[in-house]
Predict the structure.
Amino acid sequence: MSAEQTPAPETETDGPDGPRPRRLTYAAVLVALEGLALAVGGVWMLVLGLTGDPDDRQQAVTGGVTLAVLALLPLLAARGLLGRRSWSRGPAVITQIMALPVAYNLLQADSVAIPAGIALAVVAVASLVLLVNPATTQALGIRGPGRRTEEPKG
C-alpha cells in the first residue's frame, strides 16, 4: 500500500462511523459513576462488617461482597459504551432500571438518605434518556426491530 492508500489511524473517540457522540460519552460516565458508587459502598460495608461490631457479621460481609460484585456490571457496561460495543447498552439499561426502585426506597426514608435518593433518581433517569437516544443507538450499531442489514446481491 502506498502512503496515499494507508488509512489514517483512528483517534480514541473515533469509531467505525465517526466520532463518538457526546451523549454516549455522558452515558458511559454516569454508568461508571454508579459502578464506582456500588464498589465504594461494597468495600465500605465489607470493612465495617470485618472491623466493626455489626449485628450480624456474616450478613454484613455478604452484603459488602455482593455490592462489590454487582459493581462489575455497570463498570463493564461503561467500558463497553466507551468502546462503542453494542452489547454494553443492555447491562447499562438494566442497571438504571434496577436503580429506580432503590432511589424510590431512599426517598421514602426519613433521613439523610433522601438526597442520595434524589441524586440516584436523577442519574438513573438521565442515563436512561441518554442510552435510548437515537444518536447513541446509531453509534452503538443497534438497529431497531425489523431492520436488517443489507444482504449482498450475488
Summary: Confidence is low (pLDDT under 50) at residues 6-15.
